[in-house]
Amino acid sequence: MRVFVTGASGWIGSAATTELLARGHEVVGLARSDAAAARIAELGAEVRRGSIDDPAGLRDGAAAADAVVHLAYNHDFSRMADAARTDSQAIEAFGEVLAGTDRPLLIASGVAGLASGTVATEDDRPAHDGHPRLVNAAAALALAERGVRSCVVRFAPTVHGAGDYGFVPVLVATARAKGVSAYVGDGTNVWPAVHRSDAGRLVALATESAPAGSIVHAVAEQGIATRAIAETIGRGLGVPVTSVPAEEAGAHFDWMGQFFAADLATSSELTRARFGWRPTGPGLLADLEQGHYFAAPPS
Q1: NAD-dependent epimerase/dehydratase domain: which residues (predicted)?
Q2: pLDDT class for 82, splitting at 50, 70, 90?
Q3: Domains, the chain, ranges and CATH?
Q4: Which of 23, 114, 202, 241 is the most exposed place for a label (fewest CB within 10 A)?
């Protein structure tokens, strides 16, 4: 297939691009900057200059492809509404082109907000009054009724590996700055995780074979206790580990507090059974133990 990938130069997108190419597909990566274009070309993919806030350009890219993998997203938490709006417009643009073709459209989402007090599964359909990105996921799934082979990949909050610039590096930076590695409350709340290489492979598998209107979970570990994460960070930095009361999480972690206090146990049993996906990368704690998260930041 000829696969049009947004976010192809990003953390997950570059892994997915590498996997798609290895499986014999052609990849056209969307690049909004010279640096992104260079990265995509370095991976061995074709470069298409443009941006996710240009619906006309996205329609043209989708029209020239056999499949669309939409992984680009603006994760600026100070502009969540704007980011969700741009994402919605992109999904709508792709839907206009792919309607009636039965061609794949895969989009990225997350596991937050799926369930409370239980283990979330691929069959969970959360209410749409939470994060606006949930609305976009529902819109993508609804495209199945219009003849699009749509699929939503819900990623674990921690897609880890060497070079990670997501949530875990923020926790490490906070611990380094505060001189203490903290968790919230008793630290028994859990975070699911997946290694970047396993996430990239699942994107490729789902692009090839996910049925219309399907959801897959890019989750290798159902949940790691946040206290264990904090303890491993503490050892890596050589700083004490302590608990922070829930009401003080925002003050200690800033915006990260609400995420690190969340309990997000998530299963991927159905994904593994349906697609034969078997994660092989190291777990989050083992990855932390390798030390690359604790390299001194550039001065």
Answers
A1: 3-209
A2: confident
A3: 2-157+194-218 (3.40.50.720), 160-192+222-266+281-294 (3.90.25)
A4: 23
